[in-house]
Amino acid sequence: MAKAFILAGLKFHIETETPMKEFMWRPGSTLRPPVVADSTILVKEMVVPASASVKVIDSFQTQSSTSLSSSGGTVVSTVTNISEAAAKDTDATYTWLATNPHNGSVRALSTDSQKMVAWDWNSNQRMEWTVPASMTDMSAMDFVELRVAQGTRHPNTVALNGGANFSIILRDALGIEARVSSSAQGEAVNQPYQRIGDGSGLGWQNDFRTIRLRLRDFQGGGTGLKLSMISSVRIEVGGSFGSSLGRFIMDDLQFTKE
Ligand SMILES: [Ca+2]
Ligand SMILES: [Ca+2]
Question: Residues 155, 236: one domain?
Fold first, then answer.
C-alpha cells in the first residue's frame, strides 16, 4: 500500500507531475490504489511545497497568542481548552492528560519547531480568523485548506467514536457568507487508528489529513460570495455544522492553487 503513495509522492515532488498530488489529499473513498481493499483506512496528508503560491492565514508558527494569527489578523474563538504550542507529545505515552494538550503529536523531534493549535468542543462552537487587508483578494486561488487530526485518546474523541466533521464558512466584505462541510470531498476526519499500548486507552498517533475545499463550491447555488474580498474564515462545529463533540489538532489554514 505504501509503495503506491511513495511513488505518487516522488512523481509529484521530484518530477512535478501535478495529478499525482491528488493521491496526497483526496479521500480514500474517491481515490485509492486498486490493490487496496475498500475497508482499509488510508491515512495521508498533503503538505504544500514551500515554493507553491499560497496565502497562509495561520501557520501557528508566530503570534503565539490564540487571539492573533501568524498572518497578523485577529482570531476569535468560543472553543474550549485551546492550546497553541509545539506539536509535541511531552510525556512519551498516549494516555490522555490535560497537561499534555498535544498528546499524540509524535512526529516532531526535540529539535523541530513545528507548532499547531489544539482545542475541543461539546456544543456548537467556532473559531474565526480575520483575513488581513493585504490578503483579501482570493480570486486567483482555488482551495481553502488545512491539516487536521482528531486528538488521540481524548475523552471527546473516545465519545465520538468515529469520523469528525466541521464546516468552513467564508465571509466577504459585503457580509455574504457561504459554508461547505469538511466532508464535502467524501470523507470525515478519521478516528485515530484503534490500537492499544503505550499507555491506557485506545488510539495511536494523531492521524492528520488535508481537508481541501474548492473555493468555487462556496459560490455554488448562487451564494454571491465575492472571492475578491474575503474578510474572514470561520470553522464551526456542533449543532448542524459538524460533529457534536470532539477534539482537533490543526495546522496551516491557508488558501492554495490547483
Ligand atoms: Ca496565534
Ligand atoms: Ca505550524
Answer: yes
Q: How far is the CA of 35 from the centre of ligand 2 (A)?
A: 34
Nearest ligand, CA of residue 76?
1
Measuring CA to CA, how many Å separate 25 from each of 9, 21, 29, 42, 53?
11, 7, 11, 10, 17
Residues, CB within 5 angstroms of ligand 1 (ion)? 63, 68
Distance 114 CA to ligand 2 centre (A): 5
Find the 41 Cα to ligand 1 centroid distance in Å.
32
Contact predicate 165/181, CB 8 Å: yes
Domain count of the chain? 2
Domain of residue 99, residue span: 47-256
Q: 124 CA distance to ligand 1 centroid (A)? A: 22
pLDDT tens, position by position, 190-242 = 999 999 999 999 999 999 999 999 999 999 999 999 999 999 999 999 999 99
Are the C-beta atoms of residues 12 and 24 closer than 8 Å to each other?
yes
- Report the separation in Å between the CA atom of 250 and the middle of ligand 2, taken as the mean of its atom positions: 8
Q: Based on the domain organization, do 79 and 13 belong to the same domain?
A: no
Mean pLDDT of 12-36: 82
Does residue 75 carry a pLDDT above 80? yes
